[in-house]
Design brief:
alpha/beta; 4-stranded mixed beta sheet; 2 helices; 8 strands
Length: 132
Protein backbone atom coordinates (compact mmCIF):
# COMPACT_ATOMS: atom_id res chain seq x y z
CA UNK A 1 0.00 0.00 0.00
CA UNK A 2 1.16 3.53 -0.74
CA UNK A 3 1.19 5.50 2.52
CA UNK A 4 1.59 9.18 3.30
CA UNK A 5 5.24 8.55 4.19
CA UNK A 6 6.08 6.96 0.85
CA UNK A 7 8.72 8.79 -1.17
CA UNK A 8 7.87 9.33 -4.83
CA UNK A 9 10.48 9.65 -7.58
CA UNK A 10 9.33 10.87 -10.99
CA UNK A 11 11.79 9.68 -13.60
CA UNK A 12 12.16 10.57 -17.23
CA UNK A 13 14.79 10.28 -19.94
CA UNK A 14 16.69 13.14 -21.50
CA UNK A 15 19.31 13.63 -24.18
CA UNK A 16 20.64 16.66 -22.26
CA UNK A 17 21.43 15.31 -18.78
CA UNK A 18 23.73 18.04 -17.49
CA UNK A 19 21.79 20.91 -19.09
CA UNK A 20 18.41 19.65 -17.82
CA UNK A 21 19.82 19.11 -14.33
CA UNK A 22 21.16 22.66 -14.29
CA UNK A 23 17.83 24.06 -15.56
CA UNK A 24 15.83 22.43 -12.76
CA UNK A 25 18.38 23.33 -10.08
CA UNK A 26 18.67 26.95 -11.22
CA UNK A 27 15.08 27.39 -12.36
CA UNK A 28 13.21 25.73 -9.49
CA UNK A 29 15.78 26.00 -6.74
CA UNK A 30 16.20 22.24 -6.38
CA UNK A 31 19.41 20.57 -5.26
CA UNK A 32 21.19 17.61 -6.80
CA UNK A 33 20.47 14.97 -4.15
CA UNK A 34 21.90 11.97 -6.00
CA UNK A 35 23.76 10.97 -9.12
CA UNK A 36 25.14 7.94 -10.90
CA UNK A 37 27.18 7.40 -14.04
CA UNK A 38 27.87 4.38 -16.23
CA UNK A 39 25.38 2.02 -14.58
CA UNK A 40 24.72 -0.53 -17.36
CA UNK A 41 24.85 2.30 -19.90
CA UNK A 42 22.71 4.67 -17.81
CA UNK A 43 23.65 7.89 -16.07
CA UNK A 44 21.26 9.88 -13.93
CA UNK A 45 20.71 12.84 -11.68
CA UNK A 46 18.13 13.18 -8.90
CA UNK A 47 17.00 16.68 -8.00
CA UNK A 48 14.76 17.92 -5.23
CA UNK A 49 15.26 18.60 -1.55
CA UNK A 50 16.88 16.18 0.89
CA UNK A 51 14.31 14.28 2.98
CA UNK A 52 11.32 15.55 0.96
CA UNK A 53 8.66 13.07 -0.12
CA UNK A 54 9.21 13.65 -3.86
CA UNK A 55 12.08 14.20 -6.24
CA UNK A 56 12.80 14.12 -9.96
CA UNK A 57 15.17 11.77 -11.75
CA UNK A 58 16.65 12.48 -15.16
CA UNK A 59 18.39 9.64 -16.98
CA UNK A 60 20.31 9.20 -20.18
CA UNK A 61 21.53 6.07 -21.95
CA UNK A 62 24.67 5.68 -24.02
CA UNK A 63 22.94 4.06 -27.01
CA UNK A 64 19.31 5.23 -26.83
CA UNK A 65 17.82 8.58 -27.79
CA UNK A 66 15.13 9.98 -25.49
CA UNK A 67 13.70 12.54 -27.89
CA UNK A 68 11.15 15.20 -26.98
CA UNK A 69 8.18 15.06 -24.64
CA UNK A 70 5.39 12.96 -26.15
CA UNK A 71 2.74 15.67 -25.71
CA UNK A 72 2.16 19.27 -24.64
CA UNK A 73 0.41 17.98 -21.51
CA UNK A 74 3.49 16.49 -19.85
CA UNK A 75 3.42 18.89 -16.90
CA UNK A 76 4.87 19.44 -13.49
CA UNK A 77 2.62 21.90 -11.64
CA UNK A 78 3.71 23.93 -8.63
CA UNK A 79 1.19 25.94 -6.60
CA UNK A 80 2.57 29.11 -5.03
CA UNK A 81 -0.18 31.06 -3.22
CA UNK A 82 2.13 33.85 -2.03
CA UNK A 83 2.35 36.61 -4.70
CA UNK A 84 5.95 37.56 -3.88
CA UNK A 85 7.05 33.92 -3.94
CA UNK A 86 5.25 33.47 -7.27
CA UNK A 87 6.96 36.52 -8.82
CA UNK A 88 10.34 35.33 -7.55
CA UNK A 89 9.75 31.84 -9.01
CA UNK A 90 8.78 33.32 -12.40
CA UNK A 91 11.91 35.44 -12.45
CA UNK A 92 14.10 32.50 -11.46
CA UNK A 93 12.68 30.02 -14.01
CA UNK A 94 12.73 32.69 -16.75
CA UNK A 95 16.46 33.21 -16.21
CA UNK A 96 17.44 29.53 -16.18
CA UNK A 97 16.95 28.42 -19.78
CA UNK A 98 13.27 27.48 -19.65
CA UNK A 99 11.22 28.98 -22.47
CA UNK A 100 7.92 30.66 -21.62
CA UNK A 101 5.14 29.11 -23.72
CA UNK A 102 1.40 29.38 -24.10
CA UNK A 103 -0.34 26.66 -22.16
CA UNK A 104 -1.94 23.99 -24.32
CA UNK A 105 -4.70 23.54 -21.73
CA UNK A 106 -6.73 26.74 -21.23
CA UNK A 107 -7.20 25.84 -17.55
CA UNK A 108 -3.72 27.25 -16.86
CA UNK A 109 -4.32 30.60 -18.53
CA UNK A 110 -4.74 33.42 -16.05
CA UNK A 111 -3.05 32.90 -12.69
CA UNK A 112 -0.42 30.51 -14.04
CA UNK A 113 2.55 30.67 -16.37
CA UNK A 114 3.88 27.73 -18.37
CA UNK A 115 7.50 27.05 -19.27
CA UNK A 116 9.17 24.40 -21.42
CA UNK A 117 12.55 22.75 -20.88
CA UNK A 118 15.05 21.63 -23.55
CA UNK A 119 13.21 18.33 -24.00
CA UNK A 120 9.75 19.85 -24.41
CA UNK A 121 8.52 18.92 -20.93
CA UNK A 122 6.55 21.67 -19.26
CA UNK A 123 6.47 23.30 -15.84
CA UNK A 124 3.47 25.30 -14.68
CA UNK A 125 3.90 27.86 -11.91
CA UNK A 126 0.46 28.68 -10.53
CA UNK A 127 -0.19 31.67 -8.29
CA UNK A 128 -2.75 30.04 -6.03
CA UNK A 129 -3.43 27.21 -3.62
CA UNK A 130 -3.79 23.64 -4.72
CA UNK A 131 -7.45 22.66 -4.98
CA UNK A 132 -6.64 19.33 -3.30
Amino acid sequence: MITRDTVMRVGRPTDHLEEITKMYVDGLGFEVIGAFDGHSGFSGRMVGYPKHKYHLEFTTHTTETAGRAPSLENLLVFYLPDKAEFKNAIKRISNSGFKKVTSFNPYWKGAAQTFEDLDGYRVVINNGKSPF
